[in-house]
Amino acid sequence: MRRLPVSAAVVPQRDKLDVRRALATIDNPGECGLYDPGRLARILQPRATTRPSSRSCSARHITNMSNSTAVGAYSKLLALLLLVASAHAEAKPWKGAELGSQQTFKYGAFEARVRAAEGSGMITAFFLWKYGSEVPGALWQEQDIEIFGRDGDYQTQLITPGKNGAQRTEHVVNQLLLSPAWTRYYTYRLEWTPNYLAFFVDGQEVRRETDAVEFAKFLDSSQAEAAQIRLSLWAADTTWSGSFDASRVPSDVFVNWVQTYSYTPGTGPNGSDFTPLWRDEFNTLDTSRWQLSNWTFDAAVNDYVPQNAAAKDGKLVLVLTSEQSTGVFPAPPADDGSLNPPPGPTGPWPLPFRIEAEAFARYSDTTPGNIGGACRNTDVDLEVTQDPNGGQCHVGWTDPGEWLEYDVRVAAAATFDLTLRVASLIADRQLHVEIDGIDVTGPLTVPANGWQAFADLTVPDVDLTAGAHVVRLAFDTGYLNVNYFEFTSTGESNVPPPACTPSTHTYEAETMSATTGGSAPGGWNLWSNGSLSTTHDFVGGDSIIRVSAYGQSAQGVWPHLSVRVGSQTIGDVSVSATKYTPYEFAYTALGGPQSVSVAFDNDYYANGQDRNLYIDSVSIDECFD
User: Fold this and answer.
1) Among residues of the chain, what percentage have pLDDT more than 90?
2) Can you give the pLDDT at residue 602?
3) Which amino acids are annotated catalytic?
4) How buried is residue 290: exposed, middle or buried, by Cβ count under 10 Å (0-12/13-18/19+)?
5) How many angstroms separate the CA atoms of 446 and 423, rounded?
6) Checking DSSP bridges between strand 122-129 and strand 309-312, what pairing results, if any?
7) DSSP code at position 464
8) 411 three-class SS
9) Which helix (H) or strand (E) holds 88?
10) Whole-angstrom Cα Rg for the chain
11) HSE-CB of 347 using CA atoms within 13 angstroms
């Protein structure tokens, strides 16, 4: 995609220099940010965007693959030391919290059940950090999940050693959740092995990297180094984080549990690659397991202070407060144990839903490369948006004849209002929207108020039948930007449901795809946050999904079973039956083939106790009276 020459365009202004490494008063120069008085260190990190790190030992670059930042001259570092010391002496008005594990790990799996903080500027982070990555000349190694309080979505991040003199190379993927991260608990999982790096949310794999060259610092056992688990709540005031909203203070993060697994290829329970190591339920804050941070960094509006982390009512609570209100912790909300796995980075998106323009599944673009260099590594041109309505990136530099396609699903026939968020500097720019190859909007003219002056164009009463659909944004004239589009339900559709014949289809557990576990008498032993899945061709309409299961308890707690169709969790239950028993879940089905899966997410294995979930079969009834 292409835009007018610079002389005819409004080019967004961005900061060209961002001071990254702040004060971490630690004696050991290889440690970043954990409290140990006596050290003063600072790194000056020039870069091309204003997105900060989640800690002083990391800087963020806005593009999503293989972007590097340069290390500032050491003379600049020395020149700034006195200025830094003076700034550090003045405590910041806001106070956050961070924990780091005493133990370090080389390979394994790491899970945290987290309800993130709400509020623009707030960042909730769960990550693996190698001590000393920030030290000039060191080889960077970091694996992150960072959750944004501005919109409740998140990014996955891998940082590897820099190239051509840069200190680090960043690999960022921005990703979405079906409901904001502060509305419920999600289970976030990092897997790190010599063969791959992977990220999961509520049992759904959302990203996997296997490039043995690009990620050699993680995958090559001779280069990989042990890393520490960290959990943090901090805040920034940048385009990347969103403007800091002081009205949302105090803000809070709740962590139900953290679970670690050793990497034991082929020798874990039931032949798996991971063996449970330890699990912290946070009945107390165990300082033999966790260190509390006490430091700050320039990109943060807050200091980290130990008194803003505590165990309360069986949850870890991290709070961001004013200087005068530290150590005050709200009652943690209950965790219902349900799973709500997100769709993949490119859908399919369940309607009604707001779909970011950069979340396309397919495209046609007339020019090579991503001119804006942001969000995705394709030929579609994307840049960081300045739309106050939010979003990470928008599509720009559009040309006539280009198009973007998105996969969506509708649970039941309905009527929607379709709203597009668009901008242009030039008058009479047009696009239209097609659904399943049919133009449903006609030409839409974009207001000519500026490249970043976004406005809504709304098309009422778009009827969609139940099932899968393809939405195409077609650029008629080009030279316009799109930030997102949104389907809002207005009521029931007049489209009649399809006719069908009553039927039952049964899938034996042994024939389904398993992420873990093994055969058991009469079925399958599903353990350790594993799942069984199959693909079923739904007729559409009301259905019953029946799971035959029984459980084995540990510590007085029964296994938790959840059922999902595609990316939607349709129900969950605590399985207390001690022999195979049917558990039923009602579901209004989408027409067409969809993944059906059952998942186990509260495994326990310690002190001779082993919590397990046994599945015999999954049956689906359709077209019943």
Assistant:
1) 55
2) 87
3) 142, 146
4) buried
5) 6
6) unpaired
7) E
8) coil
9) helix 74-89
10) 25
11) 24
Pull the structure tokens for residue 344.
């993949």
What's the token pair of residue 433?
């929207």
Degrees (nearest 5) of the Cα angle 58, 176, 217? 35
What HEC string does 509-578 produce? HHHCEECCCEEECCEEEECCCCEEEEEEEECCEEEEEEEEEEEECECCECCEEEEEECCEEEEEEECCCC
d(CA 20, CA 44): 6
Coil, strand or helix: which one is 218? helix
| Entry pTM | 0.59
Q: How high is the pLDDT of residue 493?
A: 63
Q: Tell me, what's the pLDDT at 496?
A: 61
Of the pLDDT bands very low, low, confident and very high (cuts 50, 70, 90), residue 585 is: very high
Q: Tens of pLDDT along 479-531?
A: 999 999 999 988 766 566 556 678 899 999 998 988 888 888 889 998 778 88
pLDDT in tens, 2-48: 323 222 222 222 222 222 223 232 223 333 444 332 222 222 222 22
What is the structure's pLDDT at 57?
Answer: 39
Q: Do strands 605-606 and 481-492 pair parallel, antiparallel, or not at all (unpaired)?
A: unpaired
For tokens 């042990």, what's the residue? 226
Nearest to 330, CA basis, from 233, 254, 232, 246:
254
Cβ atoms of 20 and 32 closer than 8 Å:
no
Token output for 335: 């965790």
Q: What is the DSSP letter of 248?
A: G
Cα(226)–Cα(78) distance, rounded to whole angstroms? 30
* Separation CA 274–CA 263 (nearest Å): 5
* Tokens describing residue 376: 């995705």
Task: Assess whether pLDDT exceeds 50 at residue 74.
Answer: no
Q: State the pairing for strand pair 94-105/302-304.
A: parallel
H-helix or E-strand spanning residue 190: strand 186-192
- CA 34-36-37 angle, 5° bins: 130
Indicate the range of 3-12, 142-151, 345-354 predicted with least confidence.
Answer: 3-12
Q: Alpha-carbon distance 537 to 468, whole Å?
A: 12
CA 32 to chain centre: 24
In 3D space, the residue among 508, 537, 513, 534 whose CA is nearest the CA of residue 615 turns out to be: 508
d(C-alpha 111, C-alpha 278), whole Å: 11
Buried b (16+ CB within 10 A) or exposed e, 135-167: beebbbbbbbbbbbbbbbbbbbbbbbbbeeebb
The pLDDT score that the predictor gives to residue 300 is 95
